[in-house]
């Protein structure tokens, strides 16, 4: 999706007078530097290769098959000091014999001169240029080029006086010796195929994939941030590059084929026609990548087959590699392509395109009724809430009808099996006696009465492994017949699966968004956990009031809690995908109704921009999400299929300390002034305890400054306008500062 810098084009659904719900493609937050980098470790600067890891890899043999049910990405997580890790220092400046210059050598890129004075008349001439070599620290391998620079001084010479020649050094020459450290590691694992991490391995972004798991190509790098936020740039973005594959023993008549499946858009943003996904082969002899296949953009209409025979002798070497890369918008999760079932093998044929397999399509749904997560203490007291509608989606990839078979779900805790549940074969096949050819089936299974999670694990250990198995009686890929998920019991209630495919918001001044929850038992609300996702336009300086409503006949009613208008919140974009921020209620804990009642959590936004909460399109909920465009006088049920990533935080044994900390914040007496400010901010520390120091962070949660115990002031004169937060060290106590 393309956009201008002054407007964001969004996918609008359900237009309503004076405002509307909007779903937006997921972009990313504004960052100081937006540079693509590969496998970097603790870079001193994002503009050079200092502290970068360079990996070498083992060579693979045929066949290769990755249907992405499990990760076959290389583990690029080496650290300095690990066994087998080496390092090399590269110097910025060398002489013409490649000997590094000493650290005292300095040069000037602007001419320096000799000034000669005779009989009161001064002439000037440029000093001779010095030829050295200079490194390019932007890329590896490091390349050196010859460059001519001037000496780092001027000479003043006069014949009018004896011994009147002076050499005056420049105060700060612009070219000095420097160096970088590059680390080297080797990854050897024949079960790992891919050498880069920028493409996104996931289980939720494609619509009905043929197997469990896909790799998604978009405009976000491996850290989940855009390659070029706040621009209209399009270019190549994500790469999926294979290790070297030895094809030297094969001949053109050995029928080597590479097959794969591609879907445009999926649950995300549709690529434009000028966008593309490209496949390239590496020609070792020519030392270059060559395009062999491509598909243009468009809307989702199922998976397309790629099927190529490799006959060119240039590729039948021990240095063959292949890679996929996407061309599209660089400022967010835009122009998406989804790749599945990559298969490179010999002895194949042009007709061998069936992908005959039986597979799970998505992970098994939550085993807990209504929610994906609930507080463990609530489950212990109400262990009967097993899900009567556990969703299971499978696909018969055979080209003929296949008999159904019973499947199973096994639940393990700490490596010990707690229980098993049978998935009835005829239910899996949609009530049919057989699976129809090349058909996807979604079914629901009643887990009530047959199994319940053990209540014996302690409150601090509450994650269960859920292993699903299903199959059909024909030879197929066994790893696709299993699904591995986790049932997590946290201190929250959650509907979402933790993955955002788009972003949700409403475009209305003073608009309200409310998500309904009905707890298993009465308890206390501490705050709300929200996953905000940036969407091309940086909204981290926008304001909202955290709000909680009572139920009024199935819609939000009386306000039980709302932030004070002069102490609003801002969206915080955490690093990584699917990361939540905890917004704790100010100076209070709110009693919640019992299971007979309901409550709503959400926000009241200040202006018209949609605040863009992560929106999970895989777990739709009915009559849970509401919005108001008229100050809460009337409420509308959302027309969107999915759920925003908003979770109420419940007081449990896990977070009682957090609650106490929030309640006792006023025991610490301190203020900051002036606030708002145009520059200097002073800290008035009136507490009896010693000032513990503090950190200044921006609205995106990035640490900007450490304020020590002696200097109770700091300067925001050179900082952009916006909202900043001063947090006491080792504390939840925070002051908001407006610049």
Characterization of the model:
This protein has about 750 residues and is an all-beta fold. Helices cover about 0% and strands about 40% of the residues. Strand 49 (about 695-700) and strand 50 (about 705) form a beta hairpin.
Task: Write the topology of this structure.
Blueprint lengths: L10 E6 L2 E6 L28 E5 L6 E3 L19 E6 L1 E2 L11 E2 L5 E6 L2 E6 L3 E7 L6 E7 L3 E6 L6 E5 L5 E2 L2 E9 L12 E3 L11 E4 L16 E8 L14 E9 L11 E8 L4 E9 L7 E7 L11 E8 L7 E9 L12 E3 L15 H6 L8 E7 L5 E2 L3 E7 L2 E8 L1 H4 L5 E2 L3 E7 L17 E7 L12 E7 L13 E5 L5 E6 L6 E7 L13 E8 L4 E7 L18 E4 L5 E2 L7 E7 L7 E4 L8 E4 L7 E2 L5 E2 L1 E5 L5 H8 L6 E4 L6 E6 L8 E5 L4 E5 L5 E3 L7 E6 L5 E5 L1
Parallel strand pairs: 3-15, 8-12
Antiparallel strand pairs: 1-2, 2-34, 4-24, 5-15, 6-10, 7-14, 8-9, 10-11, 12-13, 16-17, 17-24, 18-23, 19-22, 19-24, 20-21, 20-23, 25-26, 26-31, 27-30, 28-29, 28-32, 32-33, 34-42, 35-41, 35-43, 36-39, 36-40, 36-46, 37-38, 37-41, 42-45, 43-44, 47-48, 48-51, 49-50, 49-52, 52-53
Tag the structure with descriptive keywords.
mainly beta, Jelly Rolls, Immunoglobulin-like, 6-stranded antiparallel β-sheet, flat, disordered N terminus
């Amino acid at each position: 999706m393309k956009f201008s810098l002054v407007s964001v084009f969004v996918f609008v659904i359900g237009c309503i007078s004076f405002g509307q719900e909007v779903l937006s493609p997921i972009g990313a937050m504004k960052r100081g530097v937006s540079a693509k980098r590969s496998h970097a470790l603790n870079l001193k600067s994002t503009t050079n290769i200092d502290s970068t890891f360079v990996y070498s890899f083992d060579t693979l043999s045929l066949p290769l098959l990755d249907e992405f049910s499990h990760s076959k990405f290389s583990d690029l997580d080496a650290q300095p000091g690990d066994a087998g890790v080496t390092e090399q220092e590269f110097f910025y400046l060398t002489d013409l014999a490649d000997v590094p210059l000493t650290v005292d050598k300095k040069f000037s890129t602007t001419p320096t001169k000799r000034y000669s004075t005779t009989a009161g008349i001064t002439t000037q001439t440029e000093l001779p240029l010095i030829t050295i070599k200079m490194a390019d620290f932007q890329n590896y391998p490091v390349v050196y080029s010859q460059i001519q620079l001037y000496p780092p001084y001027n000479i003043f010479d006069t014949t009018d006086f004896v011994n009147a020649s002076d050499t005056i050094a420049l105060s700060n020459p612009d070219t000095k010796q420097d160096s970088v450290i590059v680390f080297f590691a080797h990854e050897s694992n024949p079960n790992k195929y891919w050498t880069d991490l920028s493409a996104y391995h996931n289980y939720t972004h494609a619509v009905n994939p043929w197997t469990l798991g896909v790799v998604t190509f978009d405009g976000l790098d491996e850290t989940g941030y855009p390659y070029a936020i706040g621009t209209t740039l399009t270019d190549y973005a994500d790469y999926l590059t294979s290790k070297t594959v030895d094809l030297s023993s094969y001949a053109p008549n050995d029928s080597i084929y590479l097959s794969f499946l591609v879907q445009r858009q999926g649950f995300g943003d549709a690529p434009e026609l000028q966008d593309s996904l490209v496949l390239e082969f590496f020609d070792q002899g020519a030392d270059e990548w060559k395009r062999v296949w491509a598909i243009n953009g468009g809307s989702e209409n199922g998976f397309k087959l790629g099927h190529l025979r490799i006959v060119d002798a240039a590729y039948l070497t021990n240095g063959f590699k292949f890679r996929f890369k996407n061309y599209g918008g660089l400022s967010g999760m835009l122009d998406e392509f989804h790749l599945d079932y990559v298969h490179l093998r010999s002895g194949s044929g042009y007709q061998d395109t069936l992908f005959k397999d039986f597979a799970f399509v998505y992970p098994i749904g939550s085993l807990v009724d209504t929610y994906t997560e609930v507080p463990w203490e609530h489950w212990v007291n109400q262990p009967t809430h097993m899900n009567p509608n556990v969703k299971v989606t499978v696909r018969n990839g055979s080209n003929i009808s296949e008999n159904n078979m019973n499947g199973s779900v096994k639940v393990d805790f700490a490596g010990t099996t707690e229980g098993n549940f049978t998935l009835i074969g005829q239910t899996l096949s949609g009530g049919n006696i057989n699976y129809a050819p090349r058909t996807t089936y979604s079914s629901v299974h009643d887990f009530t009465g047959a199994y319940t999670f053990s209540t014996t694990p302690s409150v601090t250990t509450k994650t269960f492994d859920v292993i699903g198995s299903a199959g059909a009686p024909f030879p197929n890929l066994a790893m696709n017949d299993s699904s591995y998920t986790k049932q997590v019991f946290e201190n929250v209630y959650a509907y979402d699966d933790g993955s955002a495919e788009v972003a949700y918001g409403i475009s209305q001044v003073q608009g309200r968004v409310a998500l309904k929850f009905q707890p298993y038992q009465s308890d206390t609300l501490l705050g709300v956990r929200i996953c905000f996702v940036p969407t091309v336009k940086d909204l981290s300086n926008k304001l909202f009031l955290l709000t909680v409503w009572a139920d009024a006949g199935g819609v939000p009613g009386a306000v039980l809690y709302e932030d004070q208008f002069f102490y609003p919140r801002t969206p915080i974009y955490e690093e990584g995908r699917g990361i939540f921020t905890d917004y704790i209620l100010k100076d209070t804990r709110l009693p919640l109704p019992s299971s007979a009642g309901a409550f709503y959590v959400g926000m009241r936004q200040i202006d018209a921009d949609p605040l863009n909460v992560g929106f999970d399109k895989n777990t739709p909920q009915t009559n849970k999400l509401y919005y108001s465009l008229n100050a809460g006088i009337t409420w509308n049920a959302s027309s969107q299929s999915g759920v925003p990533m908003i979770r109420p935080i419940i007081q449990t044994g896990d977070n009682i300390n957090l609650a106490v900390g929030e309640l006792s914040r006023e025991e610490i007496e301190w203020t900051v002034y002036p606030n708002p400010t145009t520059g200097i901010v002073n800290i008035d520390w009136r507490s009896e305890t010693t000032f513990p120091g503090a950190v200044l962070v921006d609205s995106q949660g990035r640490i900007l400054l450490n304020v020590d115990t002696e200097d109770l002031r700091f300067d925001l004169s050179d900082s952009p306008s916006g909202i900043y937060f001063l947090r006491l060290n080792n504390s939840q106590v925070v002051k908001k500062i407006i610049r």
